[in-house]
Amino acid sequence: MSHILKEGLDDYIRKMRATGIISLRDAGNYVDIDSLQSKKADYIIKTYSEMPSSFATDLDYFKYASAKDEELFTIISESHTEKGKAQLLDRWVDELSHEAVRKELIVLTKVHNSKDELLKLIPAPARLEFLISIYTKQSFPEVTVIPQYSMDDEGLPRSTAAGNVADIKCFENNNAILIEVTMATGRNQTVMEGGPVARHLRNEIAKETANRKVMVQFVAPSIYPDTKEYFRFLKHNDKLNIKTKSVQEYIAFCGKSSTLFES
């Protein structure tokens, strides 16, 4: 019974959130239609509130359920501006305590599964981006922190950042800091993250802004040795400033440093 009423419900909510249509309200106690997705929701309700009363065979049902609705995918959803994302992040900066965020980051380095009623519904990769964004803003209040993950109307992540952009963009005085985070810890970390991180940094450097410096803070539960060596090579060969930190090292850095930018 506990599996049906608790774990089964959590799994259902996760899958509904994966569609991008559903938002969580009141610290995860309620679900609601995401206001940014209202056009899609209206179309789904209008089109699929009533199913065919019967199917001749199981195969007929599976064909019906698996058919792609092309019209649904043409509906354009509303999205947040960068300013809007930063403002929604500020809400969670105030909502979650610094210590609570620190503990949840440590959880991600060990068991991955949170016991928090809200955070447990966010997949670990997106949760890491969410928590690092909050912890950074809490640690450096004067820094502008703009998360790039897809977020609902509550500011909660639907999925990780995508579209050839850095995971988190930060601005401190005249400097830009890109924060790249990953749950990958083994040899795939270098393969999956090395090229994109360098590309995002080069793209940001290419933006013409006088006297501006740009660097990357690369954060993961642990840093694979090959990743450190690769970023050291980029520093030597291409003058790309990429600092690597485990989650615990990043927490310690935020606790002792007066600036997010590192030369």
What can you see in these coordinates?
- 46% of the residues lie in helices and 16% in strands.
- With 263 residues, it is α/β, with parallel strands linked by helices.
- The chain has two domains: 2-74, no CATH class; 82-256, Restriction Endonuclease.
- A five-stranded mixed sheet has the order 3-6-7-8-9, sandwiched between helices.
- The radius of gyration is 21 Å and the shape is globular.
- It starts with a helix and ends in a 7-residue tail after the last helix.
Rg, Cα atoms, Å = 21 Å
CATH architecture of the largest domain: 3-Layer(aba) Sandwich
Strand coverage percent = 15-25%
Give the end-to-end Cα distance, rounded to a whole number of Å.
56 Å
Order of helices and strands: HEEHHHHHEEEEEHEHEH
- Tell me the number of structural domains: 2
Rounded mean pLDDT score: 93
Largest sheet: 5 strands, mixed
CATH topology call of the largest domain: Restriction Endonuclease
- What structural class results from the helix and strand content? alpha/beta
Low-pLDDT residue spans: none
Strand order of the largest sheet: 3-6-7-8-9
Helix content: 40-55%
Morphology: globular
Level-1 CATH class name of the largest domain = Alpha Beta
Q: Helix count, per DSSP?
A: 9
Q: Total number of β-strand segments?
A: 9
